[in-house]
Structure formats: C-alpha cells, structure tokens
Write a structure and sequence with these properties.
CATH architecture of the largest domain in chain B: Orthogonal Bundle
Number of helices of chain A: 8
CATH superfamily of the largest domain in chain A: Bira Bifunctional Protein, Domain 2
Oligomer: heterodimer
Number of domains of chain A: 2
Largest sheet of chain B: 5 strands, antiparallel
CATH class of the largest domain in chain A: Alpha Beta
Largest sheet of chain A: 8 strands, mixed
Structural class of chain B: alpha+beta
Distance between the termini of chain B: 49 Å
CATH class of the largest domain in chain B: Mainly Alpha
Largest interface: A-B, 43 and 53 residues
Shape of chain A: globular
Strand order of the largest sheet of chain B: 2-3-1-7-8
Number of helices of chain B: 26
Radius of gyration of chain A: 19 Å
Number of strands of chain A: 10
Number of strands of chain B: 18
Helix content of chain B: 40-55%
Number of domains of chain B: 5
Chain lengths: 287, 678
C-alpha cells in the first residue's frame, strides 16, 4: 500500500526528473502553497523557474474539529511551478498521476473550468479543478498575474490535494484513517490538533489581540518595504494574511470590514511584488 | 467540389462556454467565406470541450472572378477634342496595363469620367482559407483571454489545428501551431489519428472515442436520464445550466448511477438539489416534491463503473455532510437577527448597501400593497427579511439557494407561512424561462425586487445600451412585464415609480425608467405574437396600466385581417387627419346642421357609453365592438358634411366634436396606425 509519505516521495521523484528543484515548505503560516516565496517571487520576472514542494496549508475557517473526513484547518498541498509551462503540460500532469499509482483508465477524469483568484495576493489565473470520480484532487492554473503584476512568461501552478489523492490510493473514506507511515495514521498525527485549532479559531482566539497583531505586522511590513527589505516585508505580509484568516474564522469581521482587511493585505503583496521586481530582479540579486 | 474540414484543438474549454465558442467560430468562418466570394454547400458544426470543428461540403475551388471599376481622369482632361486619349489618360492606362479600347465613360455627379473595368481573377480557395481560418478564430469573443506562451490570446491554449481541403492540407499557422491532418482522440481511451479526408471525420473520431456531434451526445444524456426516471419513478431536476454543463463536460459520456446515503435525505430538497448540481456534477431526481435516493453522473470515457460510482457517492456524501453543517450553523440564529448586518454588504457604490436596497424594496411594497390590495403588514415583513439569507453560510456556499433558503429558515423561525413563501419566491424568475412566483405576496415582493433592480441602476445613469447591460437591467425589466402580464396584475405602475423615485440617488428622472419599461412592454407584446402595427396602435401613448395595454392589444390582434377593422381604421384615419393640429375643447350639438352630423352624434353617445362600460369591466373586445358601429356614420358624415367650412364658428364646432370622437377611439387604440391593405 502507498502510504502518505510514499505519495509525497513519488511526487518528489516524478518532478525531480522533470527538472524541478525540490524545495521545502516555508516556515510561516499560510493559506496555500502559492504564498511560499518560491512561488510568489519565483513566478515574477523573466527567469525560468521549476520548483516542487509540499506545503502544509492553514485555513482556519475550514476546520471541523477533526470530525469531518475530508475538511481540515490544516491540509497538505503538493505544489509545482513550471515557468514557462511546456506545451504538453496537461499530459505531463496526467503522467504524474499515473506515476503515483492511479490507473486513469479505471476512473473518470475531468478538467473542470475553475479560474483561480487570490484577492489577498492580487493574483489570478485561468485553469481547472481536476476531478477524479467527481472529487477535486488538483487545482491547475495558468498564472496571469501575481501581486498585481502581469506575468511574462506565464507559469503553470499545479496544486495537488494530498489527503484527497491518498483516499483513492488507500481506498479509505476518511483522511483520519490514512496511513501516513506504515505504523502511523493521519488521525494519530492530526486529529487532536484539528480539534484544538478549531476550538481556538472558532471560539477562543482573542479578536482584540489578533487585530493588534495585524496592525503591528502591517506597520512592520511597511517599514521593511521603505527600506527595500522585501523578504522580511513579505514575511510580515504572510502573518497579516494568516491573522486575517483567523479573524475571519472567528466571525469577527462584518462584510465591509472584511473587504477592507483583504485590501490591506493585497496592498502589501502588491508592494512586495513591485519592490522585488524593481530592486531584486533588476539588481540581479535574485534568489 | 472538395469538402473542407477545420478542427481547432484546445485544452479543455469551460463546459458552459464551449458551445458559444464553436458557434461563433462557425459564424466568423462562414461570413469570411461569403465576403471572399467562395461558395459552399452544407455546413456542419461539431464541438466538444477539447475541439471545435466545421465540416463544409462543396467548397468552391476558386473565388468567383470579380469586376472592378477604377476611375481615371475626367473626360474633359483625358480625351482631346477628337476623342483620342491625352497623355493623362495614357498614363492611367499604362498604370493598369490596359489599352484605349478598355476605357468607358461614366457620369459621377456633374462630371463625366473615364473608367477602366478590370477583371480580377478569383484567387484559389486555399490561399483565402489561409487567411480567413485564423481570422475566424481570432475574432471569437471569449469571456476571458489568457496568455500561455506569448502568442495570441485565447480562452484556453490552442494545441493542434486540422485543416484539410479535399485531400490536401491547407498550410496555415494559428497561435504558433501549424495545421496538419493529425488530430487527437479521447485522452485515455483513444489515440492520435491522421485524417485522410474531411468526410471521414465524424466516423473516424468515434473510432478514437470522441463523439464530436453535440446532438448525438445530447441523445445519450437524454436516454440515460429517461432510463433513471423510469426505473425509479422519479423526475430529473434539471436546470438549463446543469444541462449545458453535462453536455459540455465529456467527449464520450457514460452514465453512472449513484445513491444518496439515507442520513442526508432529511435535508431540505432544494439543498440536496443544489449540492448535487453544484459545478454541473450530478443530475438530482425528485419524487412528489421530495428528493429521490438516486443521482446520475456522466463519466468521461469508459472507466470502471463500480470504481466511479463509489467515488461519486463519496463526493456526494462529503458535500451533503457540509450542507448539514451549514444548516446547523445557520439555524443557531434567526433570520431577523441578521437583517441589521446587511448594512455591511455593499450592493453598489452609488446605490448603497443591501440594507438600503431592502429599505427601498419596502417602500415599493407599501405602494404595491395599496395598488394590489394586499395585506401591508405581511408584505412588509417579507420584504424586511427577504435579503437576510445572503448572510447565511448556506447561501454563501450555494448561491442558487438565495431566497429559497430564506424561505426555509423563515418557516423554521416561525414566520407566517405566506411570509416564508413570499421570501422563497421573490428571486423568481431568475431567467427568461424560469417559473414565476405563485403566491400573491411572492408576486408582489418579486415585482418590488425587480423594480428596485431597474429603478436603481437607471437613476444613477446605467441605462442599458446595445449589448451593454452590466446590471442585468433589461432582464429584470422583462421580468417585471412578465409578472404583470402573466399574473394579471392591475396596477398603475407609473404612479408607483413616481412615488418611490425620491428614495433613489442619481439624476435620471422617473420618466427615463418609465420609457425604459414601456419599451420592454413593446418587446413583450411582439414576443407574444402581437404584430408591429397593432403594438404601435396601443403603445402610442404611455400608460402605467400594462395589463390594460396587453388586453387591448390582444383584442385588436384578434380582429386583424377582418374587413370591418380595416374599414374602421380608414374611417378613423379621416377623423384623425382632419383634426390633427387642432386643440379645441368642447362643442355644442345644438349647432349641428346636417342630418349626418346628428346621426354620428347619436351613434357617438351610444358608443361612448358602451366603450366606457366595457373598459371599466376590462372587456376591450366589447369596446372595439362598439367602435365598429361608428364606421358607417363616420363615412356618411364625411360624405355629407363639409367640416372645413367658411363659417369659423361652425367649423370649430365640428372640429370640436370630431376631437371628442377621436379621444373616444384613442381610449382603446390609435387605429390610424394599423397597416391597412389597400
């Protein structure tokens, strides 16, 4: 049987052979692998770029106290960036599914229209959700803009939902029953954690302190930007984004206020993209 | 003559847009051929989400030759007095390689010029197609354009192009792809394939597991749906959107039937229907207003049906579990307690928040309750609550449940059943073919909702023009007219609009809204089979009683083609023409001299009473019947009476009477606008 870690290793192996650098998850909270600097900065500018990595992604509002078989406050994305994308990118993606052990001739595979947008990153692209027997297992996006900047060349982002794919590979109905390793289940690793974070995000997180922290990190990001320190500025932007998600899950934001928080994060992300292009790429100090 | 096949291979198009893309490709290509004077026979359009293709029979091998006239110098300059070419004309001839014998004279305006008639031999079809095929793709209006490698932008990347004329490849380039004869079959159950000639397209594609003909796919879908309906005694809950999606999602559809776990069958039927239909995934079924335990999906290709069914059931279970969570979460609060939070949702920058919108809908409902004699308090309660479900998780997750969810939650909150029903109905009709609300309060609330959606945007200057209608004002306008006509609502619509206008920002007057709706009424009449001139005859003057206009139009339409009507129209035209431009109030029957005058006067009095009674009883057919009796007296009047006589007093008295007669007619219709056979 293919364990969760086998799945990760198989994807690493597949994309390593396709010329991707296998990088590590970024060490800050984020809602999706797209926020990893290897993607956010990697897709900006002209330089070709191929990376792959696992990203534990936190979406506080998606938490279900560990009681829903497939919804979590933290799930695992497998993220691939191909810049520029090869012409046979759809086939390449499908071959990666075969490589992890899915026999596609057994299943119903559809590329279902789903244009992706991240209001907080000022990013959008067009593409699909890939449905395997009706379940979304991957988001496939041709990025068109990041941080409000038109991309040239464009990148393809593949985001695999690892828990969902593992359900198929292991033939179980609840992610908590998945084998992470032969001796360890996903439930043992994460169920209690899911419960605690749901309690925290939905019931206990201090709204007042979260707002204060948001303001603090926003100010810090601004300060860093004014000094041309784009990487530290971006870290503070990520923290703002996560604090916004926390406030949102806590139900603390009325609709109009919610919009204004999103706009504040987006403004920071845009500024990071601009400073990066102006100072880092132009100065050749890339990376 | 050879056949032509063009197939554009793309990465998966959005299922909801694939048919439109194909259709517009067909139109562009055919109009390109017509412009290029290339004749063709039958055209067949095919598409799936991965390709759109046109198969043309009997394409001309060359363009038709064309004759072109080129203007040279004026005759006075180009020919000497003896009629021989001057150096100016010789230069002109040299430029086109022609001789003096080719010259013709032609007058343009005041002057005569020398012309050359040049024969332009038609170019070969292949050459023309190289230009117009790429152009036909470039001109397709996509909902969104993407870039993929720096080439031309399109809806999705273009990956292959087949272009064969007869048995030859047309060497063209599109989006960096060279055309050839190689196409691709089904992604998992087909293979690539070289097409020898256009005619074998449909059959060869089937060999590689692609049904390119959407009609054939539709047949498979319909058959599968019918089979489930029969086996389970249930009815498919299809929607137009769902049908478009399932038709667009597969190249080789295979029906797979799944079952909904029992634990979810207790959810409200609309919730289960919405969850299954979401993103065009599954066809739900209902039985006697309840959700049936089966659903149907269409797999792409020939995978293992058991494996796929298990997958479908799992994903349905996950989504329905979500729906149960949302339901429980929403039920922790009443709908009423959410209303103030509508102040936080911006409806439109100039038109304020959804709270503001609700306040305006309430004002409209006050006026409508009076016009339609409805219980003011209940209608107001429904209006107050009608948008609160926008703040529920369920509606955020399933936008198609807007209104419906409000109705369900209102009922559970203990609101009056008619209030709950009005809330759930008020979003209808969502589109052209959608059902109308049924309950009186639901109808009124829907009307108020649509009116707000028309008055608001128009008042701030968003009057729809041409194809531009970002606020969907036209759709809502049509819904307003439909509600009034089909639900038989007798009200003074214009009075309502004038009354609420002060509650709206912007500078456009109520008049603009009235005119806009009047035009929607005109379209509605024409859509319902009222001929153009009959519509003109009843629409000559704006009137806020749309139902009355519609009834008069129907009564008049029923008489079209009958001689009495055209005779009456001619008689009335005489009245209308002679009184045109005169504005005389009042007349004295005592001054009538001729017998014909008195006869018409008597006939008028009798008709007037009948017309007024008929109109008061909303029986315009009877009013028309009464007017028909005036035909002979009018004809006799014009035979015997000189209206425009010398005596001013007599003349004005006669005109005054005819004006009164005219006004009587106009209460029914301006018959002078009818097109009368001569």
């Amino acid at each position: 049987m293919k364990t969760f870690q086998d799945l990760i290793l198989a994807l690493h192996d597949f994309w390593r052979r396709e010329g991707c650098a296998i990088v590590e998850p970024y060490d800050l909270e984020k809602g999706a692998g797209t926020f990893n600097p290897a993607t956010f900065f990697g897709v900006l500018g002209p330089r070709p770029w191929r990376v792959a990595y696992v990203e534990p992604s936190r979406r506080p509002a998606d938490g279900r106290y560990g009681e829903n078989p497939i919804r979590f406050g933290l799930h695992h994305q497998y993220q691939v960036i191909l810049k520029p994308p090869p012409a046979d990118i759809q086939d390449l993606y499908l071959r990666s599914l075969e490589a992890i052990g899915l026999n596609l001739r057994e299943h119903d595979v559809k590329f279902s229209h789903d244009d992706w947008e991240s209001p907080t990153l000022g990013a959008w692209g067009v593409g699909w959700q890939i449905w395997l027997d009706g379940m979304e297992i991957t988001q496939f996006t041709y990025f068109q803009q990041m941080g409000g900047v038109d991309l040239d060349p464009v990148s393809v982002e593949l985001t695999y939902g690892l828990e969902r794919i593992a359900l198929f590979l292991q033939g179980v109905d609840s992610a908590f029953d998945l084998r992470w390793a032969g001796w360890l289940t996903y439930g043992e690793l994460f169920r209690e954690r899911e419960r605690q974070f749901s309690v925290y995000h939905f019931e206990k997180a201090s709204v007042e302190r979260a707002r204060t922290m948001f303001d603090f990190h926003e100010a810090e990001a601004r300060e860093c930007l004014s000094l041309g320190l784009v990487y530290p500025a971006y870290d503070h932007t990520l923290r703002c984004s996560h604090l916004f998600n926390t406030l949102d899950a806590r139900g603390a934001l009325a609709t109009a206020e919610r919009e204004s928080y999103i706009a504040r994060v987006r403004a920071l992300a845009r500024a990071c993209a601009e400073v990066y292009l102006a100072e880092v790429v132009r100065a050749g100090a890339f990376g | 003559m050879p056949a032509l096949l063009v197939e554009i291979g793309v990465e998966d198009l959005p299922a909801e847009e694939a048919a439109d893309i194909a259709q517009s490709f067909r139109e562009n290509l055919l109009s390109g051929l017509r412009e290029a004077r290339l004749s063709f026979g039958k055209a067949r359009l095919f598409w799936t989400l991965r390709r759109f293709s046109l198969l043309l029979e009997d394409l001309a091998e060359r363009q038709e030759d064309a004759v072109e006239e080129v203007r040279g110098p004026a005759v006075s300059v180009g020919l000497d007095p003896q009629g021989n070419p001057t150096p100016a004309a010789e230069g002109f001839l040299r430029r086109y390689g022609a001789g003096p014998a080719d010259l013709v004279r032609k007058r343009v305006g005041e002057k005569e010029y020398l012309f050359l008639r040049l024969r332009r031999p038609g170019r070969p079809a292949e050459e023309i197609l190289k230009e117009i095929i790429p152009q036909a793709v470039r001109l397709i209006p996509c909902s969104k354009f993407m870039r993929w490698d720096g080439g031309m932008p399109f809806l999705r990347p273009i990956r292959w192009v087949v272009a064969i004329l007869g048995d030859k490849i047309i060497p063209l380039e599109l989006a960096g792809v060279s055309a050839g004869r190689k196409t691709f079959g089904h992604r998992f159950f087909g293979r690539s394939l070289a097409l020898a000639k256009p005619e074998e397209y449909v059959a060869k594609m089937k060999e590689v597991r692609v049904i390119v003909d959407p009609e054939e796919r539709a047949g498979i879908l319909r058959e599968a749906i019918r089979a489930v309906e029969e086996e389970y005694g249930a009815k498919a809950a299809l929607s137009e959107d769902l049908w478009t999606m399932i038709l667009g999602q597969t190249e080789w559809p295979n029906p797979v039937v799944g079952r909904i776990p029992r634990e979810f069958l207790g959810l409200p039927e609309p919730v289960v229907v919405a969850a299954l239909r979401e993103e065009g995934k599954f066809v739900p079924f209902t039985r006697a207003g309840e959700i049936a335990e089966v659903f149907l999906g269409f797999a792409e290709g020939e995978g293992n049906p058991e494996v796929i069914r298990r997958g479908y059931e799992r994903v349905v279970g996950i989504r329905l579990r979500d729906a149960m969570d949302f339901f429980a979460q929403d039920r922790r609060r009443t709908l009423e307690s959410r209303v103030p939070e509508l102040k936080g949702i911006v409806y439109e920058a100039r038109l304020g928040t959804v709270w503001d919108r609700v306040e305006r809908i309430r004002a409209l409902c006050r006026a409508l309750a009076r016009e339609l004699s409805l219980p003011q308090d209940l209608l107001d309660r429904a209006a107050f609550l009608c948008k609160a479900d926008l703040l529920t998780v369920m509606v955020r997750e399933f936008p198609e449940l807007e209104g419906v969810m409000g109705g369900i939650y209102a009922r559970l909150d203990g609101e009056r059943p008619e209030v709950a029903a009005a809330i759930s109905e008020h979003v209808r009709p969502r589109g052209k073919g959608d059902e109308l609300p049924q309950t009186p309060l639901g109808i009124a609330l829907s009307l108020a909702d649509k009116l707000d959606g028309v008055i608001g945007p128009i008042c701030v200057g968003e009057v729809p023009t041409g194809s531009r209608d970002p606020y969907g004002v036209r759709r809502r306008g049509s819904a307003i007219v439909r509600l009034i006509l089909e639900k038989g609502l007798r009200l003074q619509l214009f009075r309502v609009i004038e009354e609420v206008r002060p509650a709206y920002p912007g500078t456009e007057p109520a008049e603009t809204v009235k005119k806009f709706l009047w035009e929607r009424l005109r379209s509605a009449l024409e859509e319902r089979g009222i001929s153009y001139d009959v519509a003109e005859a009843v629409l000559f003057e704006m009137d806020g009683d749309f139902l009355g206009v519609w009834e008069r139009a129907q009564a008049l339409q029923a008489l079209v083609g009958r001689k009495e009507l055209s005779d009456l129209a001619l008689a009335f035209s005489r009245v209308r023409n002679i009184t045109r431009g005169h504005e005389i109030q009042g007349f004295d029957p005592g001054l009538f001299q001729e017998e014909a005058e008195n006869a018409l006067w008597q006939a008028y009095l009798e008709a007037k009473e009948r017309v007024e009674r008929a109109l008061a009883q909303h029986q315009p057919a009877q009013a028309l019947e009464a007017l028909l009796g005036l035909k002979s007296p009018i004809d006799r009047y014009f035979d015997d009476v000189l209206v425009m006589c010398e005596d001013q007093k007599l003349r004005e008295n006669r005109l005054g009477f005819l004006l009164a007669l005219s006004r009587l007619f106009l209460r029914v219709a301006d018959l002078s606008r009818l097109v009368v056979p001569t």
